[in-house]
Amino acid sequence: LHAVRYAALAAAGFALVLIGIRIMQSIGPALQHQGLFAWFIEQARVSLLWGVIAGAAVAALIHSSSAVIVIAMGFAASGVISPELGIAVTLGSNIGTCVTAWLASIGGTRAGVFVAWSHILLNVGGTVLFFPLIGLLHEVSTWMTADPSAQIARAQTLFNVASSLIALPFCYLPFSRKKNLQPRT
To answer: 8-37 pLDDT, tens per residue?
Structure first.
């Protein structure tokens, strides 16, 4: 009986996530006619840095980079923004999600603070590293799919895998050893 209940809850939760994604994707055309959104799109045509800033700000406010990525995918699918701008927003959302880790580390253990700052360094460093490569991320993702929203998802996956592989060797440096993370006495 408990197994059926938990399976039903999991199915319902998954269904609600899919409904939420559909709703977030549908707001793109409505926002297209708003003055602030039009201003943002105009600025982003000059520099994709505006996309990174917007992604970071929205993810920091709602504490969900995934939601920001889904919104960017919806905008790209409806033609409101270009896939390149969607990738810039996605990169920015990786920075914005660091706010949650930073807030969680306040007053935490030394190990918790270390993990939070590692998360911040990985996401900010990865974004700084990949910002000049947005065009390349887009090009590689177009080899995989022609769908603009899927291109953003593929670019996010490529970003995460590449950033993690670049950061992996740093996990074995002396400052990351467990003895340095012992609680202070």
So the answer is: 999 998 888 778 767 766 665 665 566 666
Question: pTM of the predicted model, to two decimals?
Answer: 0.75
Closest CA to 150 of 38, 48, 33, 72: 72
For residue 138, what are the domain limits? 2-181
Number of domains in the chain: 1
User: Considering only CA atoms, which of 37, 26, 24, 52 is closest in space to residue 137?
Assistant: 52
| Lookup result for tokens 């603009």 | 148
Reported as a single tens digit per residue, the pLDDT across 62-87 is 888 888 898 889 888 888 889 999 99
**Angle formed by the axes of helices 49-62 and 35-46, nearest 10°:** 140
Q: Among 52, 57, 63, which residue's Cα sits nearest to residue 91?
A: 52
